[in-house]
Amino acid sequence: MEEIKLSFSPDTPPLSVIAALSLSSSPVTIDSSSSSTTVPTFLFSDGRKLTGASVLLRHVGRSTNSLPGFYGHDAFQSSQIDEWVDYASVFSSGSEFENACTRVDNYLQSVTFLVGRSLSIADVAVWSALAGSGPRWESLRKSKKYQNLVRWFNSISLEYAEPLNKVMAYTVKKSSGKPVSATAPRSKDQPQAVRAEHDKGKPEVDLPGAEVGKVKLRFAPEPSGYLHIGHAKAALLNKYFAERYQGEVIIRFDDTNPAKESNEFVENLVKDIGTLGIKYERVTYTSDYFPELMSMAEKLMREGKAYVDDTPREQMQKERMDGIDSKCRNHTVEENLNLWQEMIKGSERGLQCCVRGKLDMQDPNKAMRDPVYYRCNPMSHHRIGDKYKIYPTYDFACPFVDSIEGITHALRSSEYHDRNAQYYKVLEDMGLRRVEIYEFSRLNLVYTLLSKRKLLWFVQQGLVGGWDDPRFPTVQGIVRRGLKIEALIQFILEQGASKNLNLMEWDKLWSINKKIVDPVCPRHTAVIEERRVLLTLTDGPDEPFVRLIPKHKKFEGAGEKATTFTKSIWIEGADASAISVNEEVTLMDWGNAIVKEVTKDENGRVTALSGVLNLQGSVKTTKLKLTWLPETNELVKLVLTDFDYLITKKKLEEDDEVATFVNPYTKKETLALGDSNMRNLQRGDVIQLERKGYYRCDVPFVKSSKPIVLFSIPDGRQHQPLAH
C-alpha cells in the first residue's frame, strides 16, 4: 500500500481533511510539526504531491472504500458535493458567517444530510468549518436561532463521536485553551432518544460478511394489509444497509395465502414503500416461483426429506408439542407422490393432506419438528386466479426464493429467532446457497396494535374509517395524522439495528416530528365557537383595516397572512373568564388593551367584554396573551379533531381478546372559527394554531357552509386521555 503523509502548519490545521481521514480510517501519517508548510499537503512515497485543503478532501472522498457515498453515488451527487466543499470556505469570512448559517439552516429543513442519504465530504467540510470557528459557533449552537443546522451538527457529532473528537484535538478555544468537544451538548431540547443513544453509545449496525457493492437485500411484506410502522422499520433498515454497502433492495410480495391477500393491499404497499423513499431494483412475487417451488417439494419427497401427512391439524399440533412422530412420517416415496397429486388436484382426499419437512421431531427447538411446507387451499389467488390448489408456507418459500434471487442478507425481526435454524436447515436440504439472516428487534409501541389480523378486525367492525385512519399505526394513518416521514426515518435509524426488545413511547417519535415542523409551519388563529365572547374596543378602528404580517416570525419562507383589525373581536370563552375588570391584556399581533367592563349572565358566565386599546403598553407586564379573531363574515368554520389510542392496555399479548380492550372514546371533534387565510390551506398542510398546537389539514376549504377539518398532531408531551 502506498504511503502518504499529511503535512501542515500547526497554526492552520485542515480540519476537514483530518476529519475525513479519521472517519474513513485512511492509513495516512499526520505531521503537524512542519512550520515551513503553509499549505496542507499530501506527500506520496514516490515523491508526488497534492496541495490545498479542498483538493486533499476530494482525494480522500474519492479513494475511501469504507464509507459508501462519501463522494456521492453518481456524477450529479459528486457535483453537488463539490459545490458544498467550495461553499464551506464562506464560514471563515467573519461578515458572512451568519448568512452562511442561515442558508444551510434553510437547506436542512427537510433533509438529514447535505447530499443524498448518507454522510459525504460535503457534510465533513461544513461541519469542520463550523467546529473550527470556535466560540462563535458554540454560542450560536446553544441558542435556538438555527435549529435545523444545530440538529444536523449534533446528529453528526453523536453518530461519529469517536473519530470527530480526535479531530477536535487539533483546534483550541481561544478563550480557554481547551479542546473543543465534538460531542453534542445534552440540552433539554434534544430528543430523549438521542440523549439515551449518547449515553449508551451507538448500536452496531454492520452486516456480517457484507462486501461493498455485493449486498443484495429484500423487503418481503405479505399483501394482507397496509404497511405499518413495524414494517417501516424493516423497510428502512433494508434501505439503510443497501445505501451503506452500495447494494440493492428487491421488493417481494410474499403472496402465498390467498385467503388474506388482495390487489388493494399490493397497490397500497407499493404506495407506502414510495412514501418511505425506498428505491428498489424491481418488484417480484413469491407466486412467480410457484412452479419451481412445487418441483423442489417433489424433489425433497423423492430424497426422503419431506412427506405428505393427513393427520388432523389439532392432533398434528399436539404431536409436534410432544415430539411424537406422525404415522405418515415413514410413507414410501410412491405413497407421498400419490397423495401429492391429490393435493395438486385439490380433491377431497388432497384437502385432508399437507406436506411436511422431515427434520427432527425430538429437537428441543419446536420450529425444527417437521414444519409444514405445503397446504391445500382451493381459494382463488388475487394474482393468478384458480391455477393452483396448493400453496407453499412462508417457512418453505422464503429460504428458497431468497437463495434463488441472490439475496445475501435476509433482515427479519428477532421474533423469528427460533426459526433461524429451520431456515438454514431447509436451505441445506434444498441444496441451495446459504443466505445470512440478520436480526433486529421488532418495533413495539405502547397502546398500539401491529397485528394485521387485529387491525383488520377494527376495520371490519367499523371502529375506524379504514386502513388510513389517523388512529392506525399504518404509514398512511400516521402520515394522515401529521407525521413527517423524515421524523419516522430519524426515529427508526436512531434505534439502529438493535436486538433489544423494548416497548417504545409514541412521545419520542412526536418530539422528533415537532422539531421538524415547528421551525417552518405557518401560524394561524382559531377560536372555539362554543361560548366565544365578543370584546368591543371602544376606541378601536371605526372601519376595519388589513395588515400583512408574517405567518412565522422566524421563517420568512412561510409567507405572509392578511390580518383584519376591527372594533369588535372574538376571544375564547375560557380566556374571557380569566379576565378581571381594569386588567391589561395583550392581544397577540396587535398590542395591549385594558378591559373596562365584564358582563356576565345569571350563571356567572362571561357574555361580553368592553375595553380600550393601550398600544403603548408593555407586553412584558401582562399576564394574559390572548389570541383573537376579527368580527367579520370572512372567518372560516373549522372542525378541530383530537384522537386517542384505540386500546386501553399498554401491551396486548398474543392471546388477548382485542374486543375486551377497545377504547370507547378515541375521537373528539370541536367546532371553531379560523382566520380567513386558512381558506388557502391544502390537504396535508401542517400549521400551528396559536396557543392550541399543531394541526394537519385533512379536508380543505370548499365553501363557507362546509368546515375545514384539522387533525391535531401530538407534540411529544405526555399523552393525556381525551376528556368527554
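^ that was protein a. below is b, sequence first then the C-alpha cells
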Amino acid sequence: MAERTPASTSHSRNKHTNRLAAEHSPYLLQHAHNPVDWFAWGEEAFAEARKRDVPIFLSKLWKPLILSSNTSVQQVDREERPDVDKVYMTYVQALYGGGGWPLSVFLSPDLKPLMGGTYFPPEDKYGRPGFKTILRKVKDAWDKKRDMLAQSGAFAIEQLSEALSASASSNKLPDELPQNALRLCAEQLSKSYDSRFGGFGSAPKFPRPVEIQMMLYHSKKLEDTGKSGEASEGQKMVLFTLQCMAKGGIHDHVGGGFHRYSVDERWHVPHFEKMLYDQGQLANVYLDAFSLTKDVFYSYICRDILDYLRRDMIGPGGEIFSAEDADSAETEGATRKKEGAFYVEDILGEHAILFKEHYYLKPTGNCDLSRMSDPHNEFKGKNVLIELNDSSASASKLGMPLEKYLNILGECRRKLFDVRSKRPRPHLDDKVIVSWNGLVISSFARASKILKSEAESAIFNFPVVGSDRNEFCEKWPASVLHGDSFCSKSVEANERKEYTEVAESAASFIRRHLYDEQTHRLQHSFRNGPSKAPGFLDDYAFLISGLLDLYEFGSGTKWLVWAIELQNTQDELFLDREGGGYFNTTGEDPSVLLRVKEDHDGAEPSGNSVSVINLVRLASIVAGSKSDYYRQNAEHSLAVFETRLKDMAMAVPLMCCAADMLSVPSRKHVVLVGHKSSVDFENMLAAAHASYDLNKTVIHIDPADTEEMDFWEEHNSNNASMARNNFSADKVVALVCQNFSCSPPVTDPISLENLLLEKPSSTA
C-alpha cells in the first residue's frame, strides 16, 4: 500500500497561499503557493473574466513567471480535465502544426481561443518572444482588435468541431478495408523500425504499446493463414523491441515498472516519471509476448511491473494511483529537487565488479552512449542502469552457473532497493483515474491465468516477489512497503490469486466511490472524494474492457452484468446514433467547446478503438437482438474512420485490430462447465488462456450456481443449455465452438490446449 506525504504540505513553509489550496488535484496543489492568484477551471474564473472584461490565461504545466492585472489566470490538470485539455491542445496543434506541454492559451471571456503555444521563456531569446512580450501583445490586441480576435477564435472552434466530429457516409466499412488497413499499418510501422535498438521511430522513444499489440496481432493472423515467414519477421521486431526496453534505463531495474519515455534512441536515459497507463498496457504486451513464446523473460518483466504496482501504487481501499513524479530530493531536507536523483544512486553491493560490468556503471557516469542521452550534463558522474551484455555470456565468462549469476544480480538490486527505501521518494500523484484503473484491472486479471503457463522450475529474482512472498515480507518491514496490507494475506494465498484480488479490489473501489447506482454514471477521478469532472468516453470504454477481462479470466458474472450496464450508459451518453462513433464527452458542459470523436491510438488507446473491441466481445457473449445491436454499433463506429484507416493506418493501430476482429466470420468460443471452486477448474481456465488469440471468447459456467444460470438464461440461453447438457459432478468439461458447431468435450488441460492450437480451418 502506497503512503506518501500529501501534496498539499509540500510547500507549507511558503507563506503565500492562493485559491488552488482548496482543490483536490495534486497538480493544482503544487501551485497553491505560487505568488499568483490562480483560479481552477470553472465558473468562478469565467465570471471574473466577464466582470473585468479581460482575457483568460489558461495554463497546464506552467511555471508562473509574471502576470498582469489585465488577465484572469487559470490552471487546469489535464489528467482531471482531459476534455478541456483536448479543446485547446487541438487548437494549438491546428494553429502551429504541432503542440505539446506545457500548454499556454489565451481565451476570451466566453472561452474562445485567442492565441496559444507551449513554453514561453521569461524574456525574448533566440528570436522567440518571451512571456512578457506575449502579455503585452495580447493586451494590445484585446484593446484594439477585439472583434477580429473573437471572430477568429469562434471560426477556429467551428472548423475544428466540423473536422473532429465527422459522420459516417455508410453503415459499415468496405469488406476489404479491415485486412488492408491491418497490412498497411504493419508495413508503415515496419519502415520506421529501429533494427539496432528496437522500437518504431526515433528518439525521444515512447513505448506506445498499441503498436506492439497491432504487430503481434498481425503476426498471428499471418501465421494462421500459412504465411509463417512474414509472421516471424513482424514478431522478431516486437520481441527485440520488448527486450531492448526491458534492458534499458527506461525500465526501473531496482524498483520495477517503466518510466515514461527515453530521451535517447537506446532506451537508456529516461524521463523518470512513471505513469499508470504505461504500466497497465506494458504488462499486457509482455504477457502477450510470453503467451506466444513461453519465454519467462517476458513473464518476468510482466511480474516486475505488477509487483511494483502492488508495492508502491495501491491505496488502502484497493484503488490504484496515477503516477510517480520525475523529481525527488537527493537527500532528506534538500530543497532542490533533481529529476532522477532518486534512481541513479551509485551504491553497490558486495559483488560490485560483477554488477558494474553488467549494468555498465562507471565512476565518471554512464550517460555517454548517445549524444542525446545527456545534452545538458545533468547526469554527469551519474549512472542509469542499462544491460548491454547477455547474462548467459557473462556468466559463462566468469565460469559461473547462470542461475547463480542471476541470483547475485537480484541480491544487488535488493540492496540498492534497501538504500533507496531510506531516501526521499518522488511525489506520488494519488489521484484515482477510472480509465487508467481499467487498463490495470485488465493486466492483473489476465496475468492471474496466463502466468500459470510458466514452467514450475522458473525462478525469479528481485524486484519480482514471485512465489517467495513470505521471505520478501520478512525481509522488508511495513515502513519500506508503505503499509502492511501488501503482506497481510495468508501464507497459503498464491501470487496469481492475489493478482485477481488486486483487479477485483480496484473495480470494487470504482463501483463504491465513482459510480452512481441510480443514474448508472461514472465520475472521472477520485482524490479525497470524487472529482467534479464526469466520466469521459475513455473511462467507460477502458473500464468495460477491464471488467470483460475480469470475467473471462475467472471472476464472476457480476462483472459482466456491470460491463453491460456501463455499455448501455456509454451508448446513451456518447454514441452518435445518426452519424456513428462515440464522442469523447457528454456535451452537457457548456464550457467545453468541442465534442470530438477521437481515433488516435497514442500513449493511450483511443476510446473509439477500445469501444469497438468491447462491442465485438459483448456481441460474442450475449445472443439475439442485443448481439446484433452491438455488432451494428461497432460497424457504424468504424465507418466514421474509414478515411483514416485507408490513408493513415499507422496513427490508429488498435483501431486496425478492432476492424479486423469485427470482420472475422466466426469468433472462437471456449465454454467451460463445472464447479469453479475446484483446482481442475483453475487449470482448465489457464489452459483456455494459454495460447495467444484475441479472436477468442472464454465462457465459464457452474450449473449449480443459480445466479449464474439466470444470467445466461437471460442473455444467451444456448450457453445455459450447453452447461446443463455437459455438466459432470467430478470433472470440468470444455468445448471449443466455431462456425456453428462444437468440438467433442474434453476434460483435461493438455487436450484443451492442443485443441486451441489447431489452425482455424481445421477446428471442428
